[in-house]
Amino acid sequence: MKTVLSTKILTQPQRELFLNSGLGLVEYNAIHIDFLDVQIPLDHPNYIFTSKNAVKAFLRQAKNKKLPKLNAFCVGTNTKSFLEANGFTVVKTADNATTLATLIVQDHSGEEFLFLCGNKRREELPDILSKNNIRYKELEIYRTELNTKVFNRGFDGILFFSPSGITSFFTQNQIAPETILFCIGETTAKEANNYSKNSVIANKPTIENVLVQAIKYFKIHD
What we know:
By secondary structure, the chain is α/β, with parallel strands linked by helices. The chain contains eight helices and eleven strands. The strands form two sheets. It has a six-stranded mixed beta sheet, sandwiched between helices. Strands 2-1-9-10-11 form a five-stranded parallel beta sheet, with helices on both faces. The longest helix is centred in the C-terminal third of the chain and has 14 residues, at 207-220.
């Protein structure tokens, strides 16, 4: 039986999807999120979210408070769904931060934005906004901490959902040349390429699609 490591604890439906394929599964959280005690403005016209964790941090502070209509610009369909379920109007969504920033420059150059982010946020979005004179402020509202763990065994595949997850795993582990790294997006895959050339990128930046890519791959290469 092929065995795959997930660097994120899956939900029960996600786990069942995977196990029903006949693959073995080991899972752990490669990173830990700490929400910071910072004051987040709850009445800004436009918020930028490049992760679901940033939305969670916002909602922790907004709990039980009456909010005005809030506009969001976000990365990822899961983040978009989460925002809409919590009352946001998602104006723009994209598969990665670079594309989102480009859309903001093209269609919303006269507006102001608040970028809610973590300590591991990448430079692409702020760089594009700054170079195009987009008015924005940046606020760090959570921290990503590495949750390192040693695995005294190999895996046929490893599921990665962020560059930080890759850094965390490889801090304590090495892989065999034939191990396949399944990545949620281009940014994660770029980090994976520092450790292996055997990577597969999800068609869509969702956890479910990473699982599907792994299932498909091992069905073909069984």
